[in-house]
Protein 1
Amino acid sequence: MDGRVTATVTAGVVAAARIVAAPDGRGGTALPVLAGQGPFALRRTGVRGPEARVALVGAMSAPLGGDRLTLTAEVEDGAALRFATTAATIALPGRTGAPATYDTSLRVGDGAVLHWLPEPLISARGSDLRTATRAELAAGARLVLREEQVLGRTGEPPGRLVSRLTVRRAGRPLFDQELAYGPGVPGWDGGAVLGGHRAVGQLVVVDPAFEHRPAEPRVLGGTAVLTPLAGPAVAVGAVAPDALALRKLLDSLLSYISGVVKVI
Amino acid sequence: MEKTSDMAPRKGRGELRDQPQRTRAALLILADGRFPAGGHAHSGGAEAAVKAGRLTDAASLETFCRGRLWTAGLTAAGISAAAAAGLDPLALDEAADARTPSAALRAAARRLGRQMMRAARAAWPCAELDALAAARPRGVHQPVVLGAAARAAGLGPSDAAYAAAYEAVSGPATAAVRLLGLDPFQATAVLARLAPELDDVATRAAEAAVRAGYEGIGVLPAGSAPLLDITAEQHAGWPVRLFAS
């Protein structure tokens, strides 16, 4: 897809957006492609050193049931991109009861850095969303990726959410986890999975520097843990009562990681 | 052992399906809690859940086991079924690493894999098991070995998936009896109530293994249970504990 296709069909919105970041030849990063419509309004929000910053702007009134959303970011060799969203993404029920899909595809080249730091995804009552985030990293790529999910708006039960996060490095699997919650998902609220917590998040930080300075496992507050992966990378997993408490845990472990490698 | 890409099936299409069973009784031997593969020393996260107050009685044991079955259990069953189908065990071991973010659980899975390998090579000696043991002397993930052992015993992917899925719940149920003083009859009743879901999980895992033969190992289930991963790391640091994981 060229990133400018938006079509409304009876079942829901089909929308795609695409970001391409490439070195600008002067030590910075240019954005030769920054294309998104429909629920995707992408803005260049500034430059800091070699890094280009992009934000997905506004409270996204999607995904609604039946929507098919695709977001793609390519960070070419030597480029640096930081992605954020200005508000949480809220999965809402559609008119038809059909599930929505939201696929994110990330590619990071050699010597390139991607900070992928969206605000939380909130699974509202009655929604049904399947997200897949796939990151393909070159051997010399660096990545900081955060994913947060909040199950239900305040005081409401969650919708159904299935979320897969796959990170591959140099063509080999590095991290592959699928989280599933809500109505129709067996055992999701029991003592093995969430145990009553309503916010869940993960960080994946990949940096070739971990090859020389492997991180040690680290536990924080009983509901968050940093653990080295089988490769030059660490993952943080955390559960919390709400989004605020979750962010505090993730931020705290992220700043710990920044003491080990410089990717942050 | 022949090394192939994880994108390609190692065997012809027909051979990915369940092989004719040499003997169904082999499945009983493999899935028996007394099979000397060291599983009894692991609680499957139950010990940490008991300490945290999330596992207190038969009802919470059932939800705990149900959650574990559909996450870590389904993931392990998919890997085991794929190994039993003859997909590249080293690529499956890598896939198991990616599906096990907890370093403590990866270490436990390899330790259990080594122990199961010893038992399997004694029970069903064959060149494939020898080659796998030689390729990874420090051990491969236990579900890979379980699948390879099932294959060596003449069992099929579905059998391997059943053994892995059952182990995902029988471990915590047995541990809960010791940790909580739970009535063993009640623990067994929990397992019996989960039996229809064990069927579902084993079926899904075996289907995923067939798909993995055509589409690559990446399509295998990757279900994750955040609390199991978080508490495994904590549990590994306890100075005194009843179970190894």
Protein 2
Amino acid sequence: MPESRLSTPLRAVLLAAGLLLSSQVLAIDPQDFESPAQEARYWALIEELRCLVCQNQNLADSDATLAKDLRDQVLEMMVAGQSNEQIKSFLADRYGDFVLYRPPVKPATWGLWFGPLVLVLIGGIALTFNLRRRRALPAQVLADPDQEELDRELAQLEAEREGKEQ
Amino acid sequence: MKLTLLLPLLAFVALGVLLKSGIGKDPTLVPSPLIAKPAPAFDLPLLADQEQRLTRDDLLGTRYLLNVWGSWCPACQVEHPYITELAEGGELPVYGLNWKDEAGEAKRWLDYFGNPYRANLYDPSGRTGIDFGVYGAPETFLIDADGTVLAKHVGPLDAQIFAETFAPLLTAEPES
């Protein structure tokens, strides 16, 4: 058996990577796909469907038996020639929009879709007003500073400070 | 100027009210889109005798509870005495949907704990469960005589939940 040319640390890293990848692969049930395109579509679809049992996971990640059943259902519908929209509405009809990680835009979800944008707008407007005001202040005082004026201002400020300290 | 100084306080209070309103709610409860809609059609073998089948349309004309259970489900044992009490009360027939179970195990479970169900639909693949939007046993559906889903409860049923969730809907006369 020839000596491995890989250094020990490199071998360790490769082993760790291999172990990580294998657990990733084992979490998925083996499916027979008709084409790589179908497989890609399947993955993209179950990535954006929520598992109802462990609700912060999608169908692709979840090991719950219901998630497996729903994955089978999705694949079966894909093989039967149904569109992504048909599959999503099949699930939403049964489990509600909650099952969709990308919920449809409708009055009940306006807050979800446009809320962050509204907050950014409000923040932006507030920031703009604030910056304008700040910029306006020094511009007025120091519009055309000459030495005399600066001395006068300085003297006044010092007088004020002394007045406070006494 | 005074008002803008108060803004952070107001925002804080508003956020407080918003967050307070969420306390005590169960975030894992998923509202069912089936309420007030026709129950999904089913056609399943009976657990006791798989030669016989029961369909949704067979049950038209009866208002009934459909209780989703499995012998693998500890919470189903918790609600079992109350389900039995309800079934024995006789006002509302209780049908079972034996979900993602194995017939032998399910029958043993019923022999051991008692069988309160008028009949049990046998759904080992869980497909009918998916049609009903079931995501964990036990779940209980109240289905009207015209086949409309009136209400759904997720989790073990007890007298208080029945009084709050189902009883108010029962005072109305069944349609058809």
Protein 3
Amino acid sequence: MKEILSGNEAIARGAYEAGVRVACAYPGTPSTEILENIIRYREINSSWAPNEKVALEVGIGSSFAGARSIVTMKHVGVNVAADPLFTLSYTGVGVNGGLVLVTADDPELHSSQNEQDNRNYAKFAKVPMLEPSDSQECLAFTKLAFEISEKYDTPVMLRTTTRISHSKSVVELGQRQGDLPEPKLVRNAPKYVMLPGNARGRHYVVEDRMVKLGQDGCSMPINRTEMRSTSMGIITAGVSYQYVREVLPEASVLKLGMVHPLPMELIREFASKVDKLYVVEELDPFIEEQVKAAGIAVTGKEILSICGELTPGRIRRGFGLPEQEPVAPEKLPGRPPNMCPGCPHRGVFYSLNKLKAYVTGDIGCYTLGFMPPLSAMDTCICMGASIGMATGAVKVLPPEEQKKVVAVIGDSTFLHTGVNGLMDMVYNKGAATVIILDNRITAMTGRQDNPASGHTLMDDPTNAVDLHMLCKAIGVKHVRGVNPHDLDECQKAIAEEMERPETSVIITNQPCVLIKREGVFVKGGTLAVEPDSCSGCRACLKIGCPAIEWVGTPGEKKGKAHIDPLLCNGCEVCRQLCKFNAIQEAK
Amino acid sequence: MSDKITNILLVGVGGQGILLAAEVLSETCMLAGFDVKKSEIHGMSQRGGSVVSHVRYGKEVFSPIVPEGEADILFGFELMESYRSLPLLKEGAAVIANDLCIPPPSVLMGQESYPADLAGKISARFPDFLLVDGQQLAIEAGNARAANIVLLGAVSKRMHIEEKFWLESIEKMVPKKALEVNLKAFQVGRSLS
């Protein structure tokens, strides 16, 4: 049967067909939909973990117990999971328990804080990496990855990029493999207890494995030579293969399905058959440097940028091919993403702006608090960084400036890696204010449940972490809740806690407006501007709500506000800003 | 089947039903026996930002994204986003645009103006231009939210694919309770010339 599937859907399908029993992840664009699709297959135990390190450890546990397991994350998630990954490379996987780690990279930073090339992790951690170039290969390579994992006793990384994960193409589906042995306990301490005495010996096993994989890769069908004109030969992989076929249809191609370890003898053979050799790869010169180190002349980053994703046009330019005359784009108003109408983060950032706080921010929808007119975020580095950074800043700032430091973090991000930062702040007597924006969901990636939301990925009701009690247990003496839609309350609470020379935590109590689960988000009454009362002072525009529009004559300062009744969620934040009582419930 | 690939860009603002329209479009192409690829960006763009979806079909499609300057059909859900995408079109491309302006944040706040007479500017550059009042026609078909399918009906006239594949695809992709309205909306769009 044929279906049009995204790369992520095809990986989910591939995991199902491979007989996977356990799937675990922390959501992150562009990887999130893999787990969201895996839950269609009820044979697979699928779950969200609080972070990527835990997700991988869950996968390792089920692999060692003899079950095929898949763990998925975005590229920066592998930074969090790197600790178990590097030693998992030494232990190898469980008997019949193949383990595949999917890393979804994001060239062009469509939705990320950096553009790291995770092929480097395969080399660094000494594990094989497969890289599919369309959805059919996503399915096939996922299945193959489990075979390689068990045959060579190694975790296997499967690398996608945004253009693979989020592109759809036609896929032929197969059946679930049903003949896999049942999981059972297998004890093998010398292999699985990585104390120095055991690990020293395992390192030799790892090095031998990678040499063997490099040799065997020369005859793997996924590393494929396509001979056409011999004047130009191109080594490529992933989505770049598709662009090469599009732009340079006559060129011979060595398409690599396994990008680590490289099948160097196959590359040498291909190089000998063509007049000029190129590598076309996104981001780092990963293949190129190794080919050059093997003494093979090749052109790569001399003509293609290390920064940004490749496109057919960028490859055309790199190879000096004629292009359609580009039309200069006209300057138009931009359309950046924005917080939703009624978003509970808006009141907090409005207050932080008023209080001139120095805000160490974090990763989530609320990072949009950086944008004007709220303009109330000063830093954003990685998941969970806000709290540790606040501690560090307070250590060195003069007393008057110490008070300005406020860490802002979402509920899911707090449980991901922020909680450790809070332990440190209390333990080492840091005196900053922490605001946990508890909207009861992991919103930015599309509303995923988390340990504080009360539901699992499989939609079963479960325990919800009590954030107040957690902070208290860590030792925070001053924990208070606020309604972020009440601007006076919100601003007063933040101002008081900023003055306090001790660690304090404020937890907001309004849910994300996108939560569909019944009884969580309740829409308020729609508001409207009474034109006769509106003075045109623009105070209500200072919260940047997409439901409020300025209606004026172009070129003139005068005008009035208008609320779009279809967009308004009735949070009443704008109403509190209007000194003329012009904003009332719509009639 | 010729080797020619047809390139379609769907552009607009998050929440306008662009992704569903792109799904129906690509499903139709597959049912009609073509190879098809579709690409778009999720994530940050969902929060009211610009959305661009690429659909390519033909005998064998390689790149999932439309090469710059090679789009044959622009399927625009919002006027400024349609106008913004013109540099991606081939000379002589067909433009089917929804007659709708959604002001971006800077315009909402009164800092910038929404550009004037975009429909006129688009038709001056691309004479094969059809402006559709998607919202009004969708209301007439029974539901304002079916504007995306009205527009899809108009686009379908530019693609040489039998009507039965369109209907089969809509039946498969659209939720049951909204099917009747959407089939009607499709026909309303398809009857526009």
Protein 4
Amino acid sequence: MPRSLCVLILVLIVLHQDNWFWTDDRLVFGFMPIGLFYHACISIAAAGVWWWATIKCWPRDLERSSSTEEQSS
Amino acid sequence: MIQLYIISGYLSLLLLLGLFASRFFSGTSKDYMLASHSIGPFLLLMSLFGTTMTAFALVGSTGEAFKQGIGVYGMLASSSGIIHSLCFFVLGVKLWSLGHKYGYRTQIQFFRDRLESDKIGLLLFPVLVGLVIPYLLIGVMASGGVINGVTQGSVVEGKVVNATFEEGTFPDFLEQGEKGFAVDGSKGGVPRPLASLAICAVVLIYVFFGGMRGTAWANAFQTIVFMILGLVAFVVIAKQLGGQDSLLANLREVATHVSYEKVTRVNISKLQFFTYLLIPFSVGMFPHLFQHWLTAKSASSFKLPVVAHPVFIMIVWVPCVLIGIWATSDLIQIPPPVKANPNILLPFMVKRLAGPVLGGFLTAGILAAIMSSLDSQFLCIGTMFSTDIVTHYADKDRFSDRQQVLMTRCFIVAIVALTYCFSLFEPRAVFTLGVWCFSGFASLFPLVFASVYWRRLTKAGAYASVLAAICTWAYLFYDSGFASNREYRLDITLSGETYHMMPVVGMFASSLFALVVVSLITKPPSNETLEKFFPTAKS
């Protein structure tokens, strides 16, 4: 797994711990507890990281080797 | 009664879908167990997501948010968005490739090959089945509770009114609880054992006839159903609780009635929150997910599930968590039996706040989430029995392909019957049971990860890891009073301060430690095996 992806995952994990909104009871848009809103954003950020990973770090060798297997069988 | 008709209609639709899928069945065991590696990105996304989202996600998350507040989302939903996709990316694609190359159908086939050990199957088989059964129980128990919850009447001054069925409609052992019909009995709803039986029968029929293709189709359909109906439930409940004109006004009104404890994480320990992060690693060792991974048409089919999974989790969990914390407000009175059993909070809210027609559809949505996991687990255990035990130990060519399909089907029937019988015993909270089950699988994650990425992993290291994981799990499970102690934690005291950790930390650490230490001091795998699983690049 490329180092850049490892770093991004580590960043997500650190951000996930979210000590900063632990006792914050503000409501985003007037209804969403900020702690919940923040973690919903973490979910979207995770999707973004994985989207980047499928473009930049996709294991194309596996793709090629399995299609070669299929052709030979 | 209208809810019951809608639920019955939905279950009939699923049966038709399963039977329709069976028309595409080619008759081979590969087609029955792996849909002939024909599943594309969309179906793979829906089936992986539907399989990982269980009663635990809908019923359990609402109930747990009711008890603990919004922290439940961070503990299991946003963490799963990171870790599940990580597992799909680093394990799913790689294992799919190996499975495709060497014809694996189950995890155990892979481990036997990779570890050069036939007997590892005999160790892993009872461990994996033993951990899947509580997972199955979660679904079977929750489905019974949900159907009973929405069809039962209300208790007014000790009497049941507006019930679907009169007292005496069913035999006493079905409708009378320990304390009586109106206290912990069926309260005029479909008795739980009967409701669970109906769900088991429906899932059994479409898995029996449709195999993996039927399961994938049913999962996709049910995932769409529960995602849409979950959002509808959210809007309807917000409207009923808020009593305002617009959705936003309702949401704002309801939010102002929720207490400080529920909109923050003041009652959750920071270390405990962090250690929850280990639990989603269970996905890497779920045998039913392994089987779903193998159904993929190509490695590229994984891209959509990897990216969309975190967003899908958010779409399902955020409304459930909000409904859970709203239930703590003074806008709705939650009766003591519901407070005592958070599993039935969501059906209670749906029944109380949605009309009978909508309530029926929303219940179908909750059942969809439950059944979309049950089906894969039943199919997986049937596949493991026939592939890893019977066919593996029989003489070569002892069983024809058709006989293998028949055996798988017979095992599926047996495991459904066994699970149903277990579900009749004293129910535990869905969330608590789920956490224990996931913790067990998570503690086996080091094994699967090392099998794929660490050349130095040895047979002895693998045995040590599995034994360490399972012994630690068994000890902690026993120490927690077999999950009866919902607050069970591992405590460490440093400088006079006590820190709380989830039990999974102990299991994971012991499994990882045993794996690394024993592998390093024992003989490495043969060159032939290393070349098979870690081929050197050829120019």
